[in-house]
Design brief:
Number of strands: 4
Number of helices: 1
Order of helices and strands: EEHEE
Shape: globular
Radius of gyration: 15 Å
Strand order of the largest sheet: 2-1-3-4
Structural class: mainly beta
CATH class: Alpha Beta
Distance between the termini: 31 Å
Length: 98
């Protein structure tokens, strides 16, 4: 199944005080990300710490809701679907059963 990300953006609210500024700025974790994973291909996301790899995967799985943009599985827009209805899974680097 092909996965397409269109203009995917995720912003988190700023935390804590910022010296010398009246307004705190949001943290942009993923910014206008366009990407396609073709059907049947194995893809790796590489980049430095803090560049948005985990956030992008959490958006694809539905664990986070995007601030903007769309996520398609095949021809289906799954942007608003909850994780349990997406039919995908993710194994975390550090995992535990609760």
């Amino acid at each position: 199944m092909k996965i397409v990300l269109q203009h995917l953006t995720k912003k988190f609210p700023a935390r804590g005080p910022v010296r010398g500024r009246k307004n705190r700025e949001d943290v942009i974790a993923v910014n206008d990300f366009d990407f396609e994973i073709p059907d049947g291909k194995l893809i790796g996301l590489l980049g430095p710490s803090g560049c948005g790899k985990s956030t992008a995967l959490n958006l694809i799985c539905g664990l986070l809701k995007p601030t903007d943009g769309k996520i398609f599985f095949g021809e289906d827009d799954v942007t608003g679907l909850p994780p349990e209805n997406r039919g995908v899974g993710m194994v975390f680097q550090n995992y535990a059963l609760y």
